[in-house]
Amino acid sequence: MRILLRFITTHSSNLENTFRQGIEVLTSAWAESFPIHLFSNTDEIKQPFSKKIINQSLRLKCMNAFLKVSYPNIIILFCFSLIVGLIFSPALLSISMIALVILGLLRIEICKGRPYFRLNVEGLKRVQNISRYPAFLAITLFFLVCAIRFYPLGDAHYFLERLRIKAPFVFFPLAFLALPRFDDRRVKLILYFLLFFLAAVSVGILINYALNFERYTTLIKEGHHIPTPRNHIRYSLLAAWAVVCGIYLYIEGYVNRYAWEKWLVVGSTLFLIIFLHILSVKSGLLLLYCSLFFALLQYIWKSKAFLTGTLGLLLVLALPIIAYQTLPSFKNKVAYFQYDMLMYQQGEGANYSDSGRLASLDAGWRIAKDHWVWGVGTANIRNEVRLIFEADYANYPEVFMPQNQFLFSWASTGILGMLVVVFAFFYPIFHQKKYQHWLTLNFFFSIFIIIMIEHALENAVGVAHYLFFCCLFLSFLTPIVPWQEKTNHVNEH
Questions:
Q1: Could you give the CA distance from residue 420 to residue 430 in angstroms, rounded to a whole number?
Q2: Residue 116, φ and ψ in degrees, nearest 5
């Protein structure tokens, strides 16, 4: 840590120049591609003008607009871009995560339109004393277990891939510990963005589905899915989580500016519930039902409103029945699932996704049972699963890794490694009774459901989903230095 601090201090001027040059390159490229006629009126077009001059003016305006954004708002901006990256772009997701890590190290100070960097001294002091924040420290165990239990090094490429995917478990908790505390208003603003952004994207998905209704209805019968940005399973899980966030925002009465926004929150939440049934992705629906049940049980427990809570539970139970009777996509998905299970029971499930999931669980359990103490090692789990598939599921075109995070950890790192993973997962929610915060408890419950049905913490998007919201809530619930709205401008020399 001291070496890192010395390096940043020594090269702060270089960092400033690099940052400014990067902004100039980005704004210049954007200005060059910007259609000038969009901001030129009819009278201006009649007069001669220089495209180069306009692009230079536009570039300067872009830079000034960016440089006027405060340090806290830059952090929120990259939180928004991370959410967009979760849905659309792994590249944007990586850039956003790296940016948040950098912002944990450095603060941007603005003086007459010029960016200045200075060390985030308060944040780095917290990182140096991370033992005082054990909830953040516990998360790093996910990486340590993966890194330590590698011997024998059978598949070095797979092992290095695991380390790359698990690296954010070290850097992201440290970054959020170093960043100023996310207060209640900013946490709700991020959830607000998540809800409306997912609702807006889902509208586009439904429009595409409606325009190709017959085609997609037929494809669902054959085991395909309605097209979504990138991965349909990850998208459905995020949409289900957004429903929980919408319920929380409504209960809290949060609005960004206008009172009528609370009804927009209600409408977006109900829309996403309907959308998930039209999309008919089993993982998303399972998470939705479990989350709604859990929320209603909490409501009954706290309010003692047994009649209202029971009616709510009955409504949740009725949702799949209503969807089955009214939505062709949902009905076809149920029929295909039943057929998939039948094929698996008959030993003919090679070309069906749910059969592959069950085969992966069987392979994972057999490896864990044979190597229950130490596991086979992080570098060897893929080869071991492949051997079982070649022996007992030779007709399966794809090798599925164990679709359960705890089983995956047991098979690869043994019972001791799995227990460390269990501790790393549950400790943050129990530390200082953070489970008393309604949404934090529901988030950990939703992630628990996710990692029980897939090894979500073994892919970059799943890791980012867990780490971002987990660290966000830990920052909110941990007593650390608050946000500073006013920046201390650097004195001119």
A1: 15
A2: -125, 145
pLDDT attached to residue 413: 93
Give yes or no for a contact between 312 and 298, defined as CB atoms under 8 angstroms apart.
Answer: no
- What is the model's pTM? 0.84
Q: How far apart are CA 195 and CA 237, in angstroms?
A: 13
Q: For residue range 108-154, what is the model confidence (pLDDT) as tens digits?
A: 766 656 677 888 888 899 998 898 999 999 999 999 999 988 888 77
**What are the beta bridge partners of residue 116?**
109
State the pLDDT confidence band at 219, using cuts at 50, 70 and 90. Answer: confident
Residue with tokens 């309605």: 226
Distance CA 476, CA 478 (A): 6
Written as one string, the DSSP assignment of 55-99 is HHHHHHHHHHHHHTS-HHHHHHHHHHHHHHHHHS-HHHHHHHHHH
Taking the alpha carbons at both ends of the chain, their separation in whole angstroms is: 30
Say yes or no to pLDDT of 16 above 80: no
3-state helix, strand, coil in the chain (%, to 5): 75, 0, 20
